[in-house]
Specification:
The protein is of the alpha/beta class. The chain has 3 domains: 2-107, Alpha-Beta Plaits (2-Layer Sandwich); 117-297 and 420-433, FAD/NAD(P)-binding domain (3-Layer(bba) Sandwich), CATH 3.50.50; 299-418, 3-Layer(bba) Sandwich (FAD/NAD(P)-binding domain). It has helices spanning 2-39, 63-67, 94-98, 143-165, 183-194, 240-251, 334-344, 365-376, 422-427, 437-449; strands at residues 50-53, 74-77, 80-83, 104-107, 117-118, 131-133, 173-179, 199-203, 219-221, 225-227, 231-233, 238-239, 258-260, 266-269, 275-279, 282-291, 298-299, 312-313, 326-330, 350-354, 380-383, 386-391, 395-400, 403-408, 411-414, 418-419, 432-433. The strands form 9 sheets. Strands 6, 7, 8, 13, 14, 15 and 16 form a 7-stranded mixed β-sheet that branches. It has a 5-stranded parallel β-sheet with strand order 18-25-19-20-21, with helices on one face. A 3-stranded antiparallel β-sheet has the order 22-23-24, with no helix packed on it. Helix 4 (143-165) crosses helix 5 and helix 7 packs parallel to helix 8.
Length: 463
Amino acid sequence: MDTFVAFVIAAVVLLFFIRRYLKDMRKKEEQAQQAVEKGKFHSDGFRAQHPHIDATYCIGCAACTSVCPEGDVLAILGGKAVIVNGHKCIGHSLCAEVCPVGAITMVMAGPSMGADMPHLTPAYETSIQNLFIAGELGGLALIKNAISQGLDCVDTIAGRITGLRSGGSAADVHDVLVVGAGPAGISASLRAIERKLNHITLDEGEIGGTVAKYPRQKLVMTSPVEFPMYGKFKKTELSKEELIAFWDKVLKRVDFNFRKGEKVDDIKKGDDGIFTVVTPKGQYRSHAVILALGRTGSPRKLGVKGEDLPKVMYRLIEADHYINKKLLVVGGGDSAVEAAMGLAHQVGNQVTLSYRKESFSRLKERNSQRLAESIRKGKLKVVFNSNPVEFKEDSAVLDVAGTAQEIPNDYVWIFAGGEPPNAFLKKIGVQFGMRDMTSEAGNEVRQRNAPPAGLGSPTLVAR
């Protein structure tokens, strides 16, 4: 009898937990379906870097869905991870990092074919031997990826340097020349110092590259990263100022051979395999070159009347320099929204944000929430379905759904993206073309999970 009672109690307890588990699973499935329906309203897809999920290897553990900082980008449906709100993804890649079976790979552009991008080998080498591209210019966004690629490029060069030097190396020939002093360029330069390579780094501006041009206190990194000459930088959130201060601290410890204010006009490779890099201030020779230029290039202009007025700008660095002003921000991405909110929080400013579409679809989750709060409090006004048609000395004219509206205005900021330096790359001979990023990602996953020769079915391995 006692045994029977114990059995009944155990069965009741077991059924309770099973029922609770199934209830939780149904709730998660309902939330996933809701996310799917919400995602259907956005047909513009991914902005750039995003996860590719190989369902063959996915085990539905939900590790990827729990780490995404942008909300419901991923969900578990039918026991597999699926992308339900791709428009929210900005490529953190945390999902790929935590996947225990390597079923997620970060890819670029659309779900099948990549945009017109430079041809790169898995070692980030262009169609010109010993000319490399590191950072987002090669297709993958995020600072941590740029840092990693800069390291990898130098490691590849270090492995070849004996052969490159074998034909004789004059005193004025560097082992590696780095173009750009942003995240990829700095990491490449520091790795070159670590590997005892003779290097030089050029940049048309200052140390920091695009990061130095971000607004004050902009959050630029959201996960730890490995820095050469330092080790693991463990902070999970890093502002622009903190990152630049960290770089300054590390660079002061080493012989960082840097030339600022030198824009590269041309790169030529001689018959002897040595590159000649031409700037307005002179020429430099090197066995290998790493281009760490970024993708923003020159700001994209709208071609609107009055756009050449001094009041019209394309970057905002010091929002607190503007008070008691009437301000217009044009754009619908994170940069535009962050600028508008920064200006709106300064004393006495009246800020209007103009966006050509009917709603925002590509904002980070935190920016979306902050923007809604700013609008609710009346700190800024958003005008959807609007396009600037003219900028005047003391006003701006917007076309709002076919109707011209003139608003008083002191300053204008335009955030319409930038023109990547593709023309320069083509000029120096780098080949471009469409790349099937999904196919590349699938091949990478299959190679990573393939069993050793002679064995049967694949064995799943951790990343």
